[in-house]
Amino acid sequence: MNLKNFFKELTESESAAVSMTEKQISIMSAAIEIFAEKGYSATTTSEIAKRAGVGEGTIFHHYKTKKDLLLAIPDYLSKSPGQKGLMDELLRIFERPYERFEDFLRDIAYNRRDFVAKNIPLIKVLIQEIALQPELREKASVTVLFPAMEKFSRAIERFQARGQIIDIPSVSVSKLIFTSLFGYFFTLYIAAFAFSGDREQDLEYLIGYILHGLGIADTSVNHDPETGGAVL
Prior knowledge:
With 232 residues, the protein is mainly alpha-helical. The protein folds into two domains: 1-83, Orthogonal Bundle (Arc Repressor Mutant, subunit A), CATH 1.10.10.60; 85-216, Tetracycline Repressor, domain 2 (Orthogonal Bundle), CATH 1.10.357. Helices cover 71% and strands 0% of the residues. The protein is built from eleven helices and no strands. It is elongated.
């Protein structure tokens, strides 16, 4: 991901919700790069200024503190036209009249895969710091997480009403799906472990894994009481 292009897209689109100067773009891009490399606490504003090619005072002209730089990240992420498009598409997925839970789950899995793959440095910084920075956690929850959760839970309840998902609280189902998908994407894109294999096929395996854990078996199929296998 080219961070400068990300911020230019954010400020230059017809529906731009953010106004940033070239210096601000350089500062924020440099900050995210170094936060991702070293962590927020180990990063100094002088390092950010040097990489951005600006004076340290210029940073404080636009952002009062180093923490303001960090807290701006989820706001920028949620307002980017490209990422807003992915979020809007996710919300549309929640509202589509799917007949099968499997189709719903597959669309979510691929949508979030694309979201993570396009935002690796930003997400890496959020992951590194969210446990350590309560203000960042609250900001990320309000701008990125909470907007989707209510619609997600309602969609889960529709599949439960049809008898396609086990009867546990929809919030619990949402957390199980989120942690399964996020853990997989973290392993591949953020931690970047060099696992071999076909990523597309692995994602399909993960979808099957979630389905078997949350789905309800087809009761129209008779099973052998001793082996558990289907009786033909």
